[in-house]
Amino acid sequence: MQGEHSSKQYDMDLETIRSKVLLMGGLVENQFQDAVSSFKSGNIAQAEQVIKVDQDVNRLEVSLDDACSHLIVKRQPAANDLRTVMATIKVIIDLERIGDEATKIARSAKSITERGVTTINHYEIIRVMASSAGNMLHDALDAFARLDGKQAIQLIAKDEVVNHEFRSIMRNLITFMMEDPRTISCALDTLWVAKAIERIGDHAKNIAEYVIYIVEGKDIRHTDYVASQLEDRTTN
Amino acid sequence: MQGEHSSKQYDMDLETIRSKVLLMGGLVENQFQDAVSSFKSGNIAQAEQVIKVDQDVNRLEVSLDDACSHLIVKRQPAANDLRTVMATIKVIIDLERIGDEATKIARSAKSITERGVTTINHYEIIRVMASSAGNMLHDALDAFARLDGKQAIQLIAKDEVVNHEFRSIMRNLITFMMEDPRTISCALDTLWVAKAIERIGDHAKNIAEYVIYIVEGKDIRHTDYVASQLEDRTTN
Known about the structure:
The structure is a homodimer of 236-residue chains. With 236 residues, chain A is mainly α.
């Protein structure tokens, strides 16, 4: 049913959407980096900028979502093409949520700075985890840009590392709080930041799963597909 | 372009999907109630059942998502009809996440029971908030079932109440922890439960926003649409 002309138009429209999604991805990646940086430095202006940028991210979500719906109605894509659009719609949702989590980190940065007394080395506690999740996010956007299923599989496996780091941070913070109740406020702010970083890892994993859905045509959510793929590579 | 036959088929297919989404909604609503109940009673078997049911919820997510894509490819809906399918796809995502949050509550219930010593009245602390969020979820599913935009608007306004209750719980728990460090483990479990409940309120709000999108054709995410609607009703 699709003529060559219509199919070409479809490809062009889809490419426009994809490049805007990558723009949105760049925005939330910067939001995350800046939020972590403000948590380190206590730079309130930087934290407030992260919170402000979230409005742009929200606007991009709504307009990109709308563009995807228009594409479907106008070009009536076949099953294969539709898969890419549907996955893109979900990537957009996850990117918006990453923006929300970055905003939470920025809020904690403000709160910890405004309280004035830091009773624990709050940035050092989350440093490694923030770097792991940042790498996951970067790789997820890269895998989406290049439609690289292998890279997507690799990064999904890293989510367990981030989750492990989160649990270890939680145990650390509990120890601090028990030893010295004066650390409780600061430790809780740090705990929320760690939680937000853990969620960003989850969202990066979701994006990678959508990349695999686009490339392989497999919905691998809630399956052990990644483990089996990694195993194949080790044994072969 | 759509013949009457095709349009009727579309309506029937959509109705099948909608009734399965409501089935999924019923499952996660029960998951949430049972999770809270196990947090109250310390019934580990009940908590484990909540965790087990989550696999059914996950399977429903994947199969319903697939059914929506098939519907679009097969029936090529016009803009108005597509809006309903797209919103339904997003409702499914939120329902699955509610299942995840209920599972987290069940895990905390297990953890607090297995530790054996409860140093605070953990259920009493979250009781009111759990009831508020449970009502929001119930109303969201009801609004989706009856496509009731007014009910959706009412319940979105309640999200602020749940958020307020969360902040008040957090302050309470901090006080407990500072006064007696032996409460810290128990207080943190309770804090995670409160956080999961707050997230369930957010997801119920999202579902209500999608109902409004279906009924009114307006994407009201990140806008003050609800406030303006409630104001209209007060002043008129």
